[in-house]
Amino acid sequence: MTSKGETTRIGAGLSAAPEAGRAAAEAAREAARQLGRREAELAFAFVGARHADDADAALEALAGELDAQHVVGCVAEGVLARTTELEAGPGVAVWAASLPGATVDSYHAEAIRLSDDGAFAVTGFPDTAGASLVVMIVDPFSFPAGPFLRQLNDERPGLPLVGGIASGAGAPGTQALIVDGEVHEEGAVGVVISGVPVRTVVSQGCAPFGREAVITRAEGNLVFELAGERALDRLRADVAALSPAERQLVAQGLLAGIVIDENRAEYRRGDFLIRGVVGLDEATGGLAIGEQVRVGQTLRFHCRDAASADEDLRESLDAGLGGRRAAGALAFTCNGRGTNMFPQPNHDALAVSRAIGSDAVAGFFCGGEIGPVGGRAFLHGFTATVALFLEG
User: Fold this and answer.
1) What residue segments make up the domains of the chain, in order of their start?
2) What is the dihedral of CA 114, 119, 123, 125, to 10 degrees?
């Protein structure tokens, strides 16, 4: 039972039991234990791909251990909770929160195709006015996450939105999206939370190099000139100034960081939207970027490796906390991270837990992560997006 004056309390549990029901029950029991006698306004259930056919059983078992007003979740390629990541195999992660004074509304949104040219309409997405946090979990085969986010940014700028693409089922019509006792195969599910302090963190896991430059000629996703110089020539000069070890990192994956919010005296890591450099043209000196660009935007080249990803996540979490304490966190991390990126397992789960001084953390491995950069929500890759639920 929640009493007046109580603050946010969060619990998380994880089980690798081979049966879905048993795993969900064990994880939910642990999360409930950490809440004590307090009621859960919200719970998340992330079910590993090995249990894809048993999402209903997992949900039923969870309800037997944890009485939550709203339960949202999905089947995912891998799950994480507390300080452990289960990148493959059986596993269920459960996150539960007592949120005194909060308003919590869950939803199931669906996309309706209107024409062959890609036009669509979305039904079921809720009112988000005054939201502290919006979480969105998406089926990639039936819901156009990227176009919808662009539309949402135009209609509702500054929305604190996090989430990810649920990639655990692996085929159209086989996904399991969980919302309030029901399992859906299509669309997007999530929750709108108001009335509690939450901060969002987006760690794109890379390091800048070279010089910032204003785009002076561009068309679509093609950058032809940076600061009046051929973009390819500018890139070559920036790479030439690097050490041999740094050049090796660039050779493994060249990225472009584009400033979204230009209203800053100087730009730091979190101010850049990171996209891949997907092509170059010797004749024109142009670079193809994985994002539409425009003249006047600021661009800086980046590269990614485990060390820069580790540093970026830790710095981003510290900045997100801003010296405050967190009761817990939701984490959405790329399925290209984990042991695919870092030499030791459990990297992101450990980093978030250590940053907040608590193991009340849960989330899943995504096929694309959703989070805000420069006040606009984007679909990312190789990223960790985190919602920090602050105390008080």
Assistant:
1) 9-203+309-390, 207-303
2) 180
Q: How confident is the model over 281-338, as pLDDT tens digits?
A: 999 999 999 999 999 999 999 998 898 899 999 999 999 999 999 999 999 999 999 9
Dihedral sign computed on CA atoms, order 69, 72, 75, 77: negative
Give 272-309 as a DSSP string.
EEEEEEEEEETTTTEEEESS---TT-EEEEEE--HHHH
Residue 119's pLDDT band (boundaries 50, 70, 90)?
A: confident
CB-CB contact of 373 with 273 (8 Å): yes
Q: Write down the H helix ranges in the chain.
A: 20-35, 55-65, 145-155, 231-240, 244-252, 306-321, 347-356
Query: Across residues 156-182, what is the average pLDDT?
Result: 88
Distance of CA 226 to the CA centre of its chain: 30
Could you tell me which CATH class the domain 207-303 is placed in? mainly beta
Q: For 172, which DSSP code? A: T
